[in-house]
Amino acid sequence: MLHTAGTIAIVGLSGNELRASYFVGYYLKRHGYRVIPVNPREKEILGRTSYASLPEVPVPVDIVNVFRAPDALPGIARDAVAIGAGALWCQFGVINEEGAWIAEEGGVTVIKDLCIKVEHARYVGRMHWLGINTQRITSVRSGLQ
User: Fold this and answer.
1) Which of 58, 101, 126, 140 is found 20 to 30 A from 33 (Cα to Cα)?
2) What is the pTM of this model?
3) First to last CA, the chain
4) Measuring CA to CA, how many Å separate 126 from each of 35, 46, 134, 137?
5) Residue 116 maps to which CATH number?
6) 102 is in which domain, residue-wise?
């Protein structure tokens, strides 16, 4: 899914650089995805227009990534089905069985309780033990003789 997706709408993407959603959006954008912010409190995030809701997004969406409280998931799932999204990706802790059922019944693939950034890094083999890509490959072990 991550290999074929091009556009990812992030529901709950924050403009605050210290928030996990911002870091994930920045990471995905840096790795070539078209990141669409969905946050009614922001006008622009990561240099892109922020939309108040999924139905307002003017382009097709491959993955809807959710950074919202679990009780918001049923409505987001309905919107994901309505816009014809390919997948509903629920970040760590975003678990709501009703929302998952709504999406699945509407033909949308559901990924629950996983971080899209972590899974992308694992999939392309760039995961450092701290969860960042150091862009350094070495077989040298420091301090060991």
Assistant:
1) 101
2) 0.85
3) 43
4) 20, 23, 8, 10
5) 3.40.50.720
6) 7-124
